[in-house]
Specification:
The structure holds 3 protein chains of 3 kinds. By secondary structure, chain A is an all-alpha fold. Chain A has helices spanning about 5, 25-50, 65-70, 80-95, 95-105, 145-165, 175-195, 195-205, 215-230, 230-255; strands at about 55, 55-60, 165-170, 170. In chain A, helix 2 (about 25-50) crosses helix 5 (about 95-105), helix 4 (about 80-95) crosses helix 6 (about 145-165) and helix 8 runs antiparallel to helix 9. By secondary structure, chain B is α+β, with helices and mostly antiparallel strands. Chain B folds into 2 domains: about 10-110, Beta-grasp domain (Ubiquitin-like (UB roll), Roll), CATH 3.10.20; about 115-250, Orthogonal Bundle (Fumarate Reductase Iron-sulfur Protein, Chain B, domain 2), CATH 1.10.1060. Chain B is about 35% helix and about 15% strand. Chain B contains 10 helices and 7 strands. Chain B has helices at about 40-50, 115-120, 140-150, 160, 165, 180-190, 200-205, 215-220, 225-240, 245-250; strands at about 10-20, 25-35, 70-75, 80, 95-100, 105-110, 110. In chain B, helix 3 runs antiparallel to helix 6 and helix 9 (about 225-240) crosses helix 10. Among the domains of chain C are: about 235-350, Flavocytochrome C3, Chain A, domain 1; about 420-545, Methane Monooxygenase Hydroxylase, Chain G, domain 1 (Up-down Bundle). Helices cover about 35% and strands about 15% of the residues of chain C. Chain C has helices spanning about 20-30, 70-80, 85-105, 140-150, 215-225, 255-260, 285-300, 315-325, 325-335, 390-415, 420-435, 445-460, 465-485, 495-520, 540, 570, 580, and strands at about 5-15, 35-40, 55, 120, 130, 155-160, 160-170, 170-180, 185-195, 230, 235-240, 265, 310, 345-355, 355, 370-375, 545-550, 555-560. In chain C, strands 1, 2, 6, 7, 8, 9 and 16 form a 7-stranded mixed β-sheet that branches. In chain C, strand 17 (about 545-550) and strand 18 form a beta hairpin. In chain C, helix 3 crosses helix 10 (about 390-415), helix 5 crosses helix 14 and helix 13 (about 465-485) packs antiparallel against helix 14 (about 495-520). At the B-C interface, helix 1, helix 2 and helix 3 of B face helix 3, helix 4, helix 9, helix 12 and helix 14 of C. The structure holds flavin-adenine dinucleotide, iron/sulfur cluster (SF4) (2 copies) and FE2/S2 (inorganic) cluster.
């Protein structure tokens, strides 16, 4: 094949140029809007440092609340307790194979969509040459599995909170808030457990599933996780919305904008918090 | 979707041209009208053109049944097989645009020079079984399933054409492209194979250049889940060997 | 006058065709330590073999322990209506298992049995479950395995390079001449031995499962340098090709659909195979099922689009998607039919050329031409009057290997390269570029091919009769003349019109061979049905094969030759009741 052609930079048509006739830009617009809205809201909430718990409910942005759990240990930390924890879900989502795909496309335009031209260079592509995930900072994506380990701990806390959300004053019950907390917890669990790194670690790294009982167990795990993994993208998006929704709901109840309907018949004003 | 009934005249815009000395696509899009029959694919229309309007129109095809992977092109801007793209699934009133794969040097009209791909393949360590005593070889369908997905590949090179790492960034010399990451995965995950291709995958196949944006998967006519099932698992194996301190340590002391 | 320059390359062994047979031959030859060139009209890995679906037959006995080469041998002979070459059938049955295992050694991943060995599926005419397979894409697995093996063997692969003429030095083959499709430039390959693996002749027919490559090049080239073609009246019309929509008519529906339990019904909902072969039903041999479908349609019990129904939906969606994935997609995408829910419409399609170049049964050397070998579909002998499904892929690897081995051995014995006659080659080159100079208002070869396809389908098709065959032969003469003045537009660079302008001669020539052979055989047997001689005529035809060659004045010479006797040991394998197998030749013609 012709050497000259191989080295020729084909990014000549211009940003967004393509022969495609379908609405390829739709996904990009959606992603940018969704991530921006969520990002701004998240930052605002993290700084707000309030309205994150009410009755048996705790906002996922502040879960677990390390300052409340270990007051002495985190005495020195003066900022919102959200910051003690938010790096973990952010790191997990940020290095998630699905989110990477999504923001490389929508934000870095690398590529904007399949068979669509990208900007030659620009604000968002400071590197002259494309290096993919081989250099800093993107080489850090390789540590996704460590964020997974942390995310697994967070999921455990979420389940603790989910169970706490259906007990009040020694009485089992539930409210709209509990439903939302459960929904969020379930989706977050599905999202974390459908992770590509997990798929590798529980069996994908093996070359063969033929053999004794251990191979069969590995296969069983890997095979079933694969089914979840195929929907990873869906859980990634939906769990992002439920996290936001859950926090918003708790915020609105906590600051008195709306009233939580529940079986305990309480409106949570004046009662303390569980956490 | 329902088939449209009867013969309909439809407009086709077909790229016709020859390369310059560098293999650059030089030419123009010519317009033709073709009486299209129900059920036709794009290749039917082009063969009609060959037989009636343009006997020297260069098209590469063999099976016309989506089995050989010869007829890759870009149809309405989307990398696709000409023999698998149904005309009655496209808007009737708009012309159908057919161009050659843009990533590769042009030979003529819709035919491109894909020889680079064959060169890459030669550099991959072939299948290396763990022993020579075939009578001892046993593995279950579960193992076969995983590898067979990759072996479904018909080498149409649509994924190579769609991958921005080569399409835009021209990393021909540093990146093997999705097709050969699929091939590497089929060998690495082969239940009997013992060759170690991880260093090759990292250094020469350049798996780090893939940013998992999945255009390969979107365009694969064989529905191979290239990114999820081949590339990401290989990336994880590279992590095991080169980035994760725990697995690196384990590897050093001989535990896999 | 256009340039008739050509480049020359030299090798010990030249393999023409990179399907299963060609690749296997090239791998074997290069293992013998000779230099090997492999040329193909298309890209590597795209040859016809890639389309094979159902599987390859080999008595591995992994699934049915009772299977053995003797059983495979008997099935092949019976399936071939006793016309197969006995020695070839014997070697084929004996060596196929070894060759299939070898593929696994080279990395092929076959479907597995529950205990982890190669899975085998049942197929028409095979007594036992015998076909090693990979879902419904066995050919892809075969070709990719050989391709990936081959590229590490030091073989020089020349892709998109068409050979148009075989060259001779005295009685010995000297190489081949042709052009690069990409540039249209000429190339001569001077070699000590040549192996022909160019496949079949399907593109002389309109409704066919074959690809554009099947233009009878190998058959025609070999004939022109003195080879004989045998059994050319026997064409396999596969019973199940797609029939609807018209644009996909002919695309194959693998026999594996029936192997996996598919049922054939007519418009009345009857499983009509009970009227034709009640014992084997859908798994009868292809000639019988094809004729059954033909009859059903002709007698008015066909489906709306002129076929019959084939239904596999009772096996359940999961099973179908796992075992027949490409069929599922093929029908969904090209035919708008979901085969997990309802039946497909199918009808016969021209599929395989049983006959071919007459070769030595052990070395595959072509009769009358020293140093020329042939293997795969282009060669004749193994399949006799009807090929069993799955016997082709095993044929390719068994005889591909043999051809490669013997060609290399022959080449090693030659101390000098055979000589090339430059004048002769220039003549071929001029002949090839001549169409560019012709009247720009003349017809294109496409029109001739379309007419040829109609003619062959109507008069030399699935059923024949004397009158039609004679007319066909006459009309073919007219086509020959038309082809000689057909025009070509454009330049020599990747010009399919130009390519066809040469291929069309091959198709017409071999089309006439088929018609002549069919005219000669006044009986019906296997893939040859004469409406005016509906029954097999064992007295006259049981023990003879037809053979056709070109004589000095370029005319076809049709004759027959008598089969040798089957070895006593082989004959003893057959039942006493199987008279056709054990009676000896009584009569000559
Ligand atoms: C749809 C389909 C399904 C099938 N399924 C099965 C099955 O399940 N089981 C089975 O056993 N058989 C099956 N067959 C039959 C079998 O696939 C073929 O008979 C077999 O693949 C032929 O192989 P080959 O090596 O002889 O030729 P091919 O694979 O056809 O290769 C021919 C080669 O010759 C080259 N060539 C031809 N002419 C020239 C020239 N002039 N110059 C240079 N090169 C040339 C071509 O480019 C090509 O590389 C099937 C066939 C079809 C069409
Ligand atoms: S996922 Fe990777 S290999 Fe596939 S197209 Fe995107 S960058 Fe290329
Ligand atoms: S992986 Fe898919 S897209 Fe890529 S070459 Fe193979 S079949 Fe084509
Ligand atoms: S012609 Fe074979 S894939 Fe399209």
């Amino acid at each position: 094949m012709l050497e000259a052609f191989l080295s020729k930079n084909l990014v000549t048509q211009g940003f967004g140029k393509t022969d495609r006739k379908d609405a390829w830009w739709w996904e990009q617009v959606f992603t940018v809007v969704a991530l921006t809205v969520f990002g701004l809201y998240g930052v605002y909430r993290a700084f707000e440092n309030g309205f994150y718990e009410v009755g048996p409910y705790l906002s996922p942005f502040y879960s677990p609340n390390l300052k409340a759990l270990f007051p002495q240990a985190f005495d020195w930390f003066q900022l919102s307790p959200a910051f003690l924890i938010l790096w973990a879900p952010l790191g997990f989502r940020g290095t998630c194979y699905f989110y990477r795909r999504t923001y490389y496309r929508a934000i870095f335009n690398d590529p904007p969509a399949c068979a669509v031209d990208k900007p030659k260079q620009g604000l968002l592509r400071p590197l002259a040459d494309y290096t993919g995930e081989t250099l800093f900072p993107f080489i850090l994506q390789n540590f996704h599995r460590y964020f997974l380990y942390v995310a697994l701990v967070l999921v455990a806390f979420h389940w603790v909170h989910a169970f706490q959300s259906i007990f009040w004053d020694g009485q089992i019950g539930f409210g709209v808030g509990s439903l939302i907390v459960w929904l969020d917890t379930i989706l977050l669990t599905l999202y974390v457990f459908s992770c590509h790194s997990l798929r590798h670690l529980i069996g994908g790294k093996l070359n063969t599933f033929t053999g004794g009982i251990f191979s069969r167990i590995a296969y069983f795990k890997w095979f079933n996780q694969t089914k979840l993994n195929q929907e990873h993208w869906l859980y990634a998006w939906v769990s992002l919305f439920t996290v936001g929704l859950c926090d918003l709901y708790i915020r609105l109840v906590a600051n008195g904008t709306i009233t939580d309907w529940n079986t305990w018949g309480l409106d949570w004003s004046g009662v303390g918090c569980l956490h | 979707m329902m088939m449209s009934l009867g013969v309909v005249d439809r407009e086709f815009h077909v790229f016709r041209g020859l390369p310059d000395a560098d293999g650059e696509h030089i030419g123009e899009v010519k317009s033709f009208t073709v009486p299209v029959q129900p059920g036709w694919v794009v290749l039917d229309a082009l063969l009609y053109l060959q037989a009636h309007n343009a006997p020297d129109l260069a098209i590469r095809w063999n099976c016309k049944a989506a089995k050989c992977g010869s007829c890759a092109a870009e149809i309405n801007g989307l990398p696709s097989l000409m023999c698998k793209t149904r005309l009655d699934h496209m808007p009737l009133d708009k012309p159908v645009l057919v161009r050659p794969m843009r990533t590769f040097p042009l030979i003529k009209d819709l035919v491109t020079d894909v020889s680079w791909n064959y060169e890459i393949n030669k550099r991959i360590t072939p299948f290396t079984p763990y022993n020579d005593d075939q009578s001892t070889w046993r593995y279950f369908q579960e193992d076969a399933d995983r590898v067979q997905e990759f072996r479904k590949c018909i080498e149409c090179f649509l994924c190579q054409n769609s991958c921005h790492v080569i399409r835009h960034h021209r990393k021909f010399n540093h990146f093997a492209g999705p097709r050969f990451l699929v091939r590497l995965a089929s060998l690495e995950m082969h239940p009997l194979d013992v060759a170690d291709r991880i260093p090759f995958i990292k250094e020469e196949a350049g798996i780090g250049l893939c940013n998992i944006t999945k255009c390969c998967t979107e365009r694969c006519p064989e529905d191979i889940r290239i990114t999820d099932n081949a590339i990401i698992p290989l990336k994880e194996r590279v992590v095991d060997r080169y980035y994760d301190p725990i697995t690196m340590l384990l590897h050093k002391i001989g535990i896999k | 006058m256009m340039s008739v320059h050509y480049e020359t390359k030299t090798y010990d062994v030249l393999v023409i065709g990179a399907g299963g047979a060609g690749l296997r031959a090239a791998i074997e030859a290069s293992a013998q330590g000779v230099s090997v060139a492999l040329v193909t009209k298309s890209l590597l890995g795209k040859a016809h073999t890639v389309m094979a679906e159902g599987g390859m037959a080999a008595a591995l006995s992994y699934v049915d322990a009772d299977d053995c080469w003797q059983a495979h041998y008997k099935d092949t002979i019976r399936g071939g209506k006793y016309l197969s070459n006995y020695r070839m059938a014997e070697l084929h049955a004996k060596e196929a298992p070894e060759r299939v295992k070898e593929l696994e050694k080279w990395g092929a991943v076959f479907d597995r049995t529950p205990d982890g060995r190669i899975l085998q599926r049942p197929f028409g005419g095979h007594t036992y479950r015998r076909l090693a397979h990979v879902g419904d894409r066995t050919g892809l697995e075969l070709i990719r395995t050989l391709q990936d093996k081959g590229i590490h063997c030091g073989i020089d692969v020349h892709m998109e390079c068409t050979m148009t003429h075989l060259l001779k030095d005295g009685d010995q083959v000297a190489g081949a001449f042709g052009y690069w499709r990409e540039s249209g430039r000429f190339i001569l390959i001077n070699a000590k031995a040549v192996i022909l693996c160019t496949g079949g002749i399907g593109k002389a027919y309109k409704v066919t499962s074959n690809s554009w490559e099947y233009t009878a090049d190998g058959q025609a080239m070999a004939m022109k340098i003195g080879a004989e073609l045998i059994d050319m009246e026997f064409l396999q019309f596969h019973p199940t090709g797609m029939v609807c929509p018209p644009s996909v008519k002919g695309i194959l529906v693998t026999e594996a659909v029936r192997g996996e339990g598919g049922k054939l019904t007519n418009a009345l909902g009857e499983r009509f195979m009970k009227n034709y072969d009640p014992e084997r039903m859908e798994l009868s041999t292809r000639d019988i099922v094809s004729k059954a479908i033909y009859t059903e349609v002709k007698e008015g019990r066909g489906s709306p689009n002129g076929g019959v129904f084939l239904d596999i939906s009772h096996r359940g969606a999961d099973y179908i998607k796992r075992k027949l994935p490409s069929m599922y997609h093929q029908f969904l995408e090209l035919g708008d039919v979901d085969i997990t829910k309802g039946p497909m419409e199918v009808g016969p399609t021209m599929h395989y050329t049983m006959g071919g170049v007459r070769v030595h049964p052990e070395t595959q050397e072509v009769l009358n031409v020293t140093g020329l070998y042939a293997a795969g579909e282009v060669s004749g002998g193994l399949h006799g009057g009807n090929r069993l499904g799955g016997n082709s892929l095993s044929d390719l690897i068994v005889f591909g290997q043999r051809a490669g081995k013997h060609a290399a051995e022959f080449a090693k014995q030659q101390t000098v390269l055979p000589k090339i006659n430059d004048e002769e080659v220039k003549g071929y080159a001029e002949e090839l570029v001549a169409p560019f100079e012709r009247d720009s208002k003349a017809e294109t070869p496409y029109q001739i091919q379309a007419d040829l396809q109609d003619l062959m389908a109507n008069k030399v098709g699935i059923v024949r009769e004397e009158q039609g065959l004679k007319e066909a032969i006459e009309e073919l003469q007219v086509m020959k003349a038309r082809a000689k003045v057909a025009r070509v537009d454009g330049s020599r660079a990747y010009n399919p019109g130009w390519h066809l302008s040469h291929d069309i001669h091959n198709m017409i020539l071999v089309g006439e061979v088929v018609a002549q052979a069919a005219l000669q055989r006044t009986e019906s047997r296997g893939g040859h049905t004469r409406l005016d001689h509906l029954e097999p005529d064992n007295e006259q035809w049981r023990f003879v094969n037809s053979t056709i060659r070109l004589n000095e004045s370029d005319e076809l010479e049709v004759s027959t030759y008598e089969k040798p006797q089957m070895d006593a040991a082989l004959r003893d394998l057959f039942d006493k009741s199987d008279e056709l197998a054990i009676t000896q030749s009584k009569q000559k013609i």
